[in-house]
Amino acid sequence: MSETDTAYSSIGRLALSALVVLIAEPLYLMEDLAVVGRLGTEPLAALGVGTVVLGVVSTQLTFLSYGTTARSARWFGRGDRAAAVGEGVSASWLAVGVGLVIVAVVATLAGPIVRLVASDGAVADEAAGWLRIAVCGVPLILLSMAGNGWMRGVRDTRRPVVYVATGLGLSAVLCPLLVHGLLGAPHLGLHGSAVANVIGQSLAGLLFALRLARETRQSGSPVSPWPVASVIRAQLTLARDLVVRSLSFQVCFLSAAAVAARFGVAALAAHQVVLQLWNFLSLLLDALAIAAQALVGAALGAGTASSARVVARRVTVVSVAVAAIALSVLAVARTPIAGIFTDDPDVLDASATPWWFLVGMLPVAGVVFALDGVLLGSGDAAYLRTTTVGSALVGFLPMIWASLAFDWGLAGIWTGLAAFMVLRLVAVTARLVSGRWTRIELSGVGR
């Protein structure tokens, strides 16, 4: 096999592993919704509210995965597997500590939190009960994130898939049993969904923790089982940048939904249908970005900036190719794909405008997602934070609120999203060309 084939094979393995992990939870949530939906409208609405709150919390903490991947890969590229594993140790302790704080806060304030989302008192009460149970699994969710991060960094692509699939598989089996009291299991109703979540997440988190414990004993040089202060500080710096970046996404998309709702039910439904497709395609492209993080981090750790540039080019080529395939499918099969989500003629008609914006943005997204991964792999999170926030403030948010003021409808909202992506394209391309991303040093030693 040639060097080029080997490089593309590495990209493929890492991306496939990441993709399975990324889509496993959304697939489980679909089953969860279907199972709880049999209880009636009120429990289903409560589950929706609870998962939104829990999802917002989890989304803000993805630094435990992305930041750890970059740092662990850098040490792995230098040939220091012990330091790479040490990054996982510190990240895992950070995950447990942050997770316990979240459990304490959310369990105490579950009622007021869900009432910010749910106006119906009965739904809010049920959602709060579900959330108080489900939040107990957050430390294990975060432990799995940290585990995915360091294991990707050391190129362990099989075990994360097995661990996540095992945990969510157990939840998938337990969910109908506990919700509906099947096969002699206790009939817990909506709370059974939360219990099934926690049990599955606990199993996955435990598997990651056991693997980390074994690695600390097996690495070539001793790895302390305790966190290292300098590493924690460095990871928190990355966390600050990635959380601010993530919050900018949340503000933009929540604003877009709020404005779309002002244009009527059909417009809001059409916006959400196309946005769900965007989110799904983002998972595909994000998997390639994660592969870029690991490979670029390792190349820079080995001191071979030229190899990192080669990885950047190849990941971008693959990402754009995937985006082009998706573009072709969406352009040819708009009606049948949209028909999967709704048969309402008004919604189908309204979806045409954002649909073609989505199709047009895909090549841009292919480049942006790939280079986001490259820059994250180099540890250039501060630059990504600043440019993402800037693109939101200059491109996305002004167009969203101008759409409301001037009645531009969904075309105005999606023009804002397109402007957001183009501005990010300019920013990440300029950074790549400058070469500054290849000279960033990561502080702290992971052992």
Q: How would you concisely characterize the structure shown here?
A:
This protein has about 450 residues and is mainly α.
Write a structural description.
It is found in: Cell membrane. This is Efflux protein, MATE family. It is a multi-pass membrane protein. Belongs to the multi antimicrobial extrusion (MATE) (TC 2.A.66.1) family. The protein is mostly helical and 447 residues long. The protein has 2 domains: 3-227, no CATH class; 250-439, no CATH class. The mean pLDDT is 89. It has helices at residues 3-37, 41-59, 63-77, 81-115, 121-134, 138-153, 158-180, 190-218, 229-261, 265-301, 305-332, 334-341, 345-350, 352-377, 381-406, 409-434. The chain has 16 helices and no strands.
